[in-house]
C-alpha cells in the first residue's frame, strides 16, 4: 500500500466512480441493441489500436451485479454511468427496445439496493449509426432526436434517478470526432465540426427542457475544459493561447454561462464560425440555467503559435487554428503521455469560478490516470502512481474549495479498466483491473486506498452514506 496521506475534503463532499456504456458494456449486438458510430468506427480497419472494439469490453452487460457489489464495497456515494442510446432506441428514434430499457432498470435497482445514487449520462459518444447516416450532429434533427431520447429515459427511470448529465465532453464529439478524426465518426471537416458543436449544445438545451418537463430533475452537462498556458509571453504565443481557449473552452462556456458565442471566434476560424445552423433563439435555449456543471480534468495544455496545416481557411479543419502543443511542465507523464500537473486543476477551477458569475455548482465527473499496471506475484496490482495522482488531484480540488469554488463531489475515472476509445485496451484507468481473457476483476491498491479515504472522510465528518 502507501503512506500517502488522505486529502481533506469538506463535510457534505461526495465521492463516486465513473464509467461509460461503450467502454464497459460489451453485448454490442445482444437483446436488440442497434449499432452506434463507435461500432462502425472501431470495426473499420486502422481506426483503433490493434483493431480493438467494444464488442465485449468488460462484459458489464452480463456482470453488472458483480460490478455493483464492488462499488458497494468501495463505499462510494454515487456511480456515474452512461446509457447507451442505441440500446434504448436501436434506430435513434422510434420504437424503444424493451430489453434495453430493462437492462438499465436492473442496473439502477441494483445500485439503489446497494445504497448508491445513480448519476446518469445520457450521451457518452455512442450516437446511433442510423442518425449518423442522416447527418449526425451536423443537422438539427439529431438534437431533436436527442431530446426525445432524454424524455424517454426520464420517463422510464425518473422515479429512481434524480441527477442527469446530458452530454459528456462535447468537445471530443465535435472536434476529435469531426475535425481531428481520431474518434467516431472519424472525419476531418471544417464547418461540419462547428455545426456539430452547435447542434450538440442545442441538443443539450432541448434535453434539459425535456428532463425538467418530466419531473423534479437536476440537469447538468459534463465538459472537459482545459487549463491552457502560453509557451511564452510573445504576442504570437498569446494570440495562439486565445485561439486555443476559444476552441477548447469558450465554444462551450460562452453559450452555456455567458449568453454569447465565443468572443474570439472570428479570429480563431478566420471568419468561418458563424453559420446558418445558428437560429435566433438558440442562445437562450443553450443558456437554460443548470443545476450543476460536470468537469473532467486530466492534464493541462501549453500552446505556441505554429503555421496552419492548410493555407486556405476554407479548406481547414476546425482544429487547424495555428497552434502547436508544448510540454514545458517537466513532470511525470501517465501512460497516455499526459503530464501530471495537479496545480493546473486548481487554476482551472479558480479561473472558471472567477470568469463566470453564473457558474452552477461544480462536480468533478472524471479524474484519474492510466498507469503501467501489472499483476504482482502476490496476485495484487500495486499502483502507487495512481494513488499519488488521485491524492494530489483531490488535494487540488480541496485547494480550489478553500479558495471559494463550489465543488460538490468527485468521481474517479474509472471504476474498471475499459475500452479507451482509439487507444484500445492498453490504457488502464481502473481502480479495478479487468483480465480481458477471463473477465476476472482484481481490485487494485488504489481501490483500497480510495475506500479507506471515503471511510476516513465519513469518520471525520460523521457522515453516513
Ligand atoms: C475522457 C472520456 C472518458 C475516458 C477518459 C480517459 O475524455 O470522457 O470516456 O476515455 O477521457
Strand order of the largest sheet: 1-2-3-4-5-7-10-11
**Which molecules are bound in this entry?**
beta-D-fucopyranose
Ends apart, CA distance between termini: 25 Å
Topology order in helix (H) and strand (E) letters: EHHHEHHEHHEHHEEHHHEEEHEHEEEH
Number of helical segments?
A: 15
- Would you tell me the structural class of the helices and strands? alpha/beta
CATH superfamily: Glycosidases
Beta strand count: 13
Strand % is 5-15%
Rg (CA only): 21 Å
CATH fold naming:
TIM Barrel
Count of spatially separate domains: 1
Helix fraction bin:
25-40%
List low-confidence stretches. none
CATH architecture field:
Alpha-Beta Barrel
CATH class equals Alpha Beta
Roughly what is the average pLDDT, rounded to an integer?
A: 97
Description:
There is one protein chain. It is built from 15 helices and 13 strands. With 465 residues, the chain is an alpha/beta fold. The strands form 3 sheets. The chain has an 8-stranded parallel beta barrel with strand order 1-2-3-4-5-7-10-11, surrounded by 5 helices. A 3-stranded mixed β-sheet has the order 6-8-9. Helix 3 runs parallel beside helix 5 and helix 8 packs antiparallel against helix 9. The radius of gyration is 21 Å and the shape is globular. It starts with 13 loop residues before the first strand and ends with a helix. The model has no long low-confidence stretch (mean pLDDT 97). The structure holds beta-D-fucopyranose. The site of beta-D-fucopyranose (FCB) has 12 residues, from loops. Residues 20, 23, 168-169, 172, 224, 296, 366, 413, 420-421, 429 line the site of beta-D-fucopyranose.
